[in-house]
From TrEMBL, chain A:
Protein name in UniProt: ABC transporter, ATP-binding protein
Origin: domain of life: Bacteria
GO-annotated molecular function: ATP binding; ATP hydrolysis activity
Homology family: Belongs to the ABC transporter superfamily.
Entry-linked InterPro entries: AAA+_ATPase, ABC_transporter-like_ATP-bd, ABC_transporter-like_CS, Metal_Ion_Import_ABC, P-loop_NTPase
SUPFAM superfamilies: P-loop containing nucleoside triphosphate hydrolases
From TrEMBL, chain B:
Protein family: Belongs to the binding-protein-dependent transport system permease family.
SUPFAM superfamilies reported in the protein's UniProt record: MetI-like
Membrane topology classification: Multi-pass membrane protein
GO terms (BP aspect): transmembrane transport
Keyword Membrane: yes
Residue ranges occupied by any ABC transmembrane type-1 domain in the UniProt entry: 27-223
GO CC annotation terms, alphabetical: plasma membrane
Species the sequence originates in: Shewanella benthica KT99
Superkingdom of the source species: Bacteria
Sequence intervals crossing the membrane: 35-54, 66-86, 106-127, 153-170, 205-226
Chief localisation class: membrane
Entry keyword set: Membrane, Transmembrane, Transmembrane helix, Transport
Protein name stated in the entry: ABC transporter, permease protein
Pfam families: BPD_transp_1 (PF00528)
Amino acid sequence: MANLIAQNIEMCFDDRQLFTIDRVQLSEGNTIYLQGDNGSGKTTLMKLLAGLLKPSRGTITAEGFAPLPWWRSNPLLGKAIYLHQHPYLFDGSVEYNLRYPHPFSDMTASDLNKRTLAAIEMAQLTHLCKQAASSLSGGERQRLAIARAWIMRPQLLMLDEPTSNMDKYSQQLVLTMISELQEFGTGMLISSHQACVLTSLCNQTWIIKNQTIISSAASVNPTHTGPINIQDSQYVIAN
Amino acid sequence: MNEGWLALLQQALNLLFSLDPEVWSIVSVSFSVSFAALVITLLPSMILGFVLAFGRFPGRWLITNLIQTLQSIPTVVIGLLVYLMLTRMGPLGDLKWLFTQKGMILGQMLICAPVLVAISQAAFTSVDRRAWETSRTLGASWLRSIWTLCRELKVPLLMAIVAGFSRILTEVGCSMMVGGNIADVTRNIPTAIALETSKGDFSQAIALGLVLLILSIVLNFTLGILRGKAEPRSH
């Protein structure tokens, strides 16, 4: 089982301490809701786990992943896919963006093509395939970024405020993709400053408070088993 | 007076369209030397621009400012430096590159590199950090991620190339000092224009000037088209 384990972490920016962590573990099969106020360090924690930032102190180790090629200097990069709150789309068409990560996957070309077509369908991007990614709306950009990650079938995925730009329809589409990944066993860390439809999938909660992380069982519908319909949802639709 | 100008222009066009061997030999020397200097300098300069934009190491500030300074050094001073290096008494005298195209290429490399480094550094500095992060988190190697950034920055990087190429194709000082303006060997467009003008043979000077003008129009309009297609990104 793939795990990312952060131990004795301290993260500072200049002289300001953002947070300290004794130990947290993101594992395959877990879906974790990361809570915290604005500026508490949710994004920083995700970037640390993704290998995009280095902690001021402490270690983050990756276990249970395929061995790295010799030329990979950072053992964390590419282990967990991190999705920005405002996703970056490369200059090119929607299809180009969806195919961008294909060369970095272990899947066969045929499987990747099948998953790409499925992702386009699930994210309802069929009519936008040839369109420039820069012309998409906020919600469409989020759907495209999540579809791009979905194609890769990652072992671990981190979503930073994934529903912040989405209407109910987009949230439902994203929920379908995320649920499918959860069934596959992808470990997920979902940050949100308020409960939303995706946080209902979580079975654990991490709360960043008073410059440290409290790990606890999810308080938001942790026993979710069946399909969720956004129309019946009791959760706040973010922004 | 106007008739004189028209006659000169007509003579210049005749020289170009009749494929005058002397004129086209000068054009050929100019392009082959400047193109070689650009090709040799391009990759190392872009890599240095990338390192200066993303790297954090002691001396970065000093190197950045040195490169900015080198951009504004007159080409004749660079020509003097290369001349002193290549002269028989100089440290590179054994190469016997003085008054050869190789010497001119060396001089033009020193003129081109600071322009390429400075503009590419500015381009890489302006790139959205999420482009790098997205590429890396999706599993791209650092080399592939650099290529992705170059693709995202294709317009400013092409502008750097055009600016660098324009500077070396049109410089006189270094080519004159290091090349020596030898016919069919080191005589390029700018040194030929200077020579022909001093001799009073304006038709050839105008013909060569037209070549530079046409090249300038083609390069800049191509860039303009590329820039026009690059829509403002909404991140």
